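Dear H.,

Thanks for agreeing to be a second pair of eyes. The structure we're designing against is below in token form, covering all 164 positions.
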């Protein structure tokens, strides 16, 4: 499976809720982990490989060794605090990086790989990855969160073919 790239309209879909974390969902999660690793991504949403289901994976290990890979179905931010303004990129928009304002710390809830409800507290780049991937399952891209001038910069770069 390959990565769905901007401006594919699929990236604008609001993904469907997962009723149960069954074998099919777990195998989708494993495929997502494989793709995320292949492209050295920090996170991936199912829609990025063309599956409109509310499933995300985050490679927390890249940020904090020993944190492992987190799989979450139906993830949502239940609490957010602080502010962070750091550079972000997206496997669906290769070659473009820009600073985006996010919560610095979030409490995220969802179903884990075993189908249990979990609440995870994170900060920094892991919190950023959660917010970025949760945006994906709602059809939102990080470029949507840029101020007007930066959006313009993106459009110019895109028009010039600097973004593939
Ligand atoms: Zn992304």
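And this is the sequence the design step returned. I haven't edited it by hand at all.
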């Amino acid at each position: 499976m390959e990565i769905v790239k901007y401006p594919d309209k699929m990236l604008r879909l609001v993904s469907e809720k997962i009723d149960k974390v069954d074998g099919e969902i777990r195998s989708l999660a494993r495929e997502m982990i494989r793709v995320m690793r292949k492209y050295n991504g920090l996170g991936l949403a199912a829609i990025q490989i063309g599956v409109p289901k509310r499933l995300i994976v985050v490679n927390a290990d890249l940020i904090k060794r020993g944190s492992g890979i987190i799989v979450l179905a139906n993830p949502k931010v239940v609490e957010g605090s602080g502010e962070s303004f750091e550079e972000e990129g997206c496997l669906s928009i290769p070659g473009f990086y820009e600073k985006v304002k996010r919560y610095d710390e979030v409490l995220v809830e969802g179903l884990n790989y075993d189908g249990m409800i979990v609440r995870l507290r994170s900060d920094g780049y892991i919190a950023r990855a959660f917010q970025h991937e949760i945006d994906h399952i709602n059809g939102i891209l990080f470029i949507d969160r840029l101020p007007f001038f930066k959006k313009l910069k993106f459009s110019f770069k895109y028009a010039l073919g600097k973004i593939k």
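Two observations from my side: The chain has one domain: 9-159. Residues 9-159 form a domain with the Peptide Deformylase fold (CATH 3.90.45.10).

Warmly,
E.
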